[in-house]
């Protein structure tokens, strides 16, 4: 595996871990365990920060005039990152909605 493939797999790994954490957060929220859901969302956020840093480094490399080869694997990694970011954004909202549902249902 060359250096670029290692960087790409790091993007995929961080993004995949983030996505796993956000769906785990949703499961905890459905069980009304909002503390655990929050922990999972924070873990996802940390993974996404790491992935975004890798992406930023690649962008800076290209901006400085160094060629960055765009391969199908790179496109796949970027797809993983973007879908993980979207999943986190949506599931954060779903956790908040579940919290509100729980509060309404227990206030009677």
UniProtKB/TrEMBL annotation:
The modification Phosphohistidine is found at residue 76. Mg(2+) binds at residue 79. InterPro entries: PTS_IIA_lac/cel (IPR003188), PTS_IIA_lac/cel_sf (IPR036542). Keywords: Magnesium, Metal-binding, Phosphotransferase system, Sugar transport, Transferase, Transport. The keyword Repeat does not apply. It comes from the Bacteria. The keyword Transcription regulation does not apply. Binds 1 Mg(2+) ion per trimer. GO terms for molecular function: metal ion binding; transferase activity. Pfam families: PTS_IIA. Its cofactor is Mg(2+). GO terms for biological process: phosphoenolpyruvate-dependent sugar phosphotransferase system. The active site is at 76 (tele-phosphohistidine intermediate). This is PTS system cellobiose-specific IIA component. It comes from Anaerosolibacter carboniphilus.
